[in-house]
Each structure stands twice: as C-alpha cells, then as structure tokens.
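Bumping with the actual sequence this time:
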Amino acid sequence: MKLFSFSKNILILIVSLMAVQGMAHAASPAKIDRRSDEALATFREDVSGADAVLAKAAGVLIFPSIKKAGIGIGGEHGQGALRINGKTVAYYSTSSASIGFQLGAQTRRQIIVFLDPKALEKFRYSDGWEIGVDASVTVITIGAGGAIDATQLSQPVVAFVFDGKGLMYNLSLEGSKINQIHDD
C-alpha cells in the first residue's frame, strides 16, 4: 500500500509540474503553426470527410498535442492555433484538472470546428473559454480510417479527438479551459 501511495504522489507531482511548465512556457508561434499543419494533414489523410467538415467551418482551433495523465487526480495541457480561412489569427492553450476515477497517460490531437460564426465570435471575444460552461461542444472520437459525414453535423461547435497514443481511462473535454497565449 505504501508503494501505491508513493507512486500516486510521484505522479501527482509530475502532472502538476507538467501543467505549470506548460502554462509558464508557451511554444513559439512558428512551432505551434508547424505542429498544427502536421495535425491537419493527419486529420485530412486519416479521416474520410474531413475536408468537407473543414470547408464548412467558420474557424478551426487545432491542438496538435494535448498531454494528459492521472491516477485519481489528473491534468492535461496543450497549445494550438485558431485559423480562419486557412490563416492563423491567434494562439491558445487548453488545460484542465480533474479528480475522480481515472488512470493512465496519453497524448492526443484535437480539432475544434466552429460551424456557426456566432459561436466563433463568442469564443474569440471571451476572456477564457470553458467547455461545458461557455459552450456545449459535441465530441467525436475518431480512430484511424474513420469517417465523418459533414451533412449530419448540425451543432455549432464540434471537437474531433484523434491520433491518441497511450492509455487513459476517462476522456472528457468538460471543464477544459482555453485561453489565448499569443496574438499572431
């Protein structure tokens, strides 16, 4: 039992340090753009219908890598770019902390598509945006070779989670806080 308690404390420390380090040090805009380009290319290559969804979007928020870890207490963090008409207009971070039944670590890519221009405007002019509080976001998890039917998407904001690596029991975007970190 002592070993489990020690391991849990070590993990909590690592997760806390990861979150603090990630929040304190934003990647350069060029690095975020390069990683976002790679994530979009993977999304388009691996997911049938991705181009149709992106063509309907008023804006696309790309998080090329979100890292999450936890044992009972967890945290996640990632940085990304908001693009409108294919051009980066701002940079954002996403982070969350949670307590509850969760175990493991993972990285994943996430693309939030704003299909409604009003939802995009509300996001852009908010001071911190929290999923589940400021907006309801439909989450679609996609495996390799997945498909999307753009004609079936009627929600104003849809998040696509894909290219996950690692094992994490408990995937929820609820409570994720998104804040602007750089202007373009």
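The tokens above came from a reply further down the thread. The longest strand covers residues 87-114.
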